[in-house]
Predict the 3D structure of the following.
Amino acid sequence: MGRILVADDDRGILEVIKIILEENGHEVIALDDGSVLVDKAREMMPDIILLDIWMSGIDGRQVAKKLKSNKETSRIPIIIISALSDLGQIVKESCADDFISKPFDIDNFTKTIDKYLKDA
Amino acid sequence: MTRHKRATTLTHSSTDAQLESILEGLKDHAIFILNKDGLVIKWNKGAESIFGYSEEEILGKPYSILFPYEDVEAGKHKELLKKAKLYGRVEEEGWRRRRNGWFFWANPIVTALKDKSKKPQGFIIITRDMTERKRMEEILSFQKTLLEAQSEASPDGIMVVDSSGKVIYHNQRIIQLWKITPRLTAQRSSSLIFKLIKQKIVSPKNFLNYVNNLYNNPEKESKEELILKDEKTVDCYSSAIRGQDGIYYGRIWFFRDITDRKIHEKQREILVGVASHELKTPITTLKAYTQILHRRFQKIHDDESSIYISRMDEQLNKLTDLVKEMLDVVRLRAGTLIFHKELFDVNEIIKELVNDIQRTVIKYSLIIKGSAQNKVWADKHRVGQVLSNLLSNAIKYSPKNSKIIIKVSSDNKYVTVCIQDFGMGIPKDKQGLVFDQFYRISEGSRESFPGLGLGLYLSSEIIKGNDGKIWLNSQEGKGTNVYFSLPIKPKIKGKQKNG
């Protein structure tokens, strides 16, 4: 089971993702403030980061790039989770590893998470 | 009477008999002679038919009876003869009065007749009924004024270029739009104007190719958006001008500044983008809880609740699709729906999609026949969207028949996919409309189907945007085949120009 850092400024979504992941036995660190994400990631060293790309006041793309360019955090898989379209393109631009579109199917959601946990 | 006789003698002495008989025979020309006092002394058959007076009636009468009363009062008849006396010959156009009181438009030529000592002896007047011509001229002039007014009031800059490249007409708007100097305007050269336009746009090379291409293929109609260096957008439309006989006269060019529209489209896109994002956020939470509940009900074997919950989930999926469609259409219109093309295997995404859909619609059987021998060059995600849309249409519109066939084939240029259903079909007169925006097959029938009617429009635009083709054949009551084909290689740029 893994330790997953989830960053989303919508508390409703944050809560339901937490329920899903915890039901699957994962440890969840939920963040509704993207500005502290890099520090939190360094501190907690999660197995996966689930990142909403469009949080208020924060460009998720830049955050992802920062994480990927930082020695300590560069190996943590980043999965973009967003209601924007063209996520494939956003993943490329932000050097992230994968994406989950909102709204998602729980099956597909957990499949994607499991894939990166296995790889780690 | 003696005066009359003297004038007649004069005529005989100055015209010869042969000429007289020719003049007499000219039925559409009124030819008559006045003595120096303005009394009619000679009247031909043409005059009789045009004015309505017989020779007997009119001989000896003052020619002022041929004028409208107001003109007589104004002395116009006298003035005409005075001028003829002065200049020898005078032409004019004006209204004349027939015997029955009706007026006609005449173009008389009045020639003064003089004796050997050059003393005026009388006048010969030749005229025709020009009413019809005048009417036509008036209509033409009105039409010309109307056209000019229209073209001046038009938001388009308009330029008409003849087959040699000379500008034969332009309105003021085009001068303002491209800031054409009076000197350049006076040169009337379309190539100089295109040169000026070229300097103002972002990709000038494409523009010249575009113009040359049109001149080499006069049949072509064309529409192009020109992006200007000053960030304006101008819509450029051109079409050949042909006469009724098919002769090529040149081209007409329309330029319209659509900068404001573009800005509005962009703003609308941003707005709908934000709206769609914000709508999807609560849907995400709703959908997640729905699925959590579904699992819990399944765990405790509460099948009824479980079914209800999966119905909720279906509706949430529909809601999501609507939100996505809405955004896609706005993006299509704003020109910001970008296709990320790559080589991929259509067989794979068909299999995946059919498996996914099959799981949710147990009642239907989806059968894949054939396969593509080549990969296609297109936007994988968008092609998946088209397939998913066509399959859900096939299901939606065949409520009574459960078979759906997906045929895949390929040749050395294209991969073609056909989705065949055995449902209600599309009436012949509606088949051309289904790829239009907001059209729904159920329109006009009592059955109603959910959706915005954007699916086929979007699919068609996506396929076209990926250099493919989409078409269908359908028989009412028997079912529909929707086809699309996609290229196996990227389109070579510039090929269109040679071909």
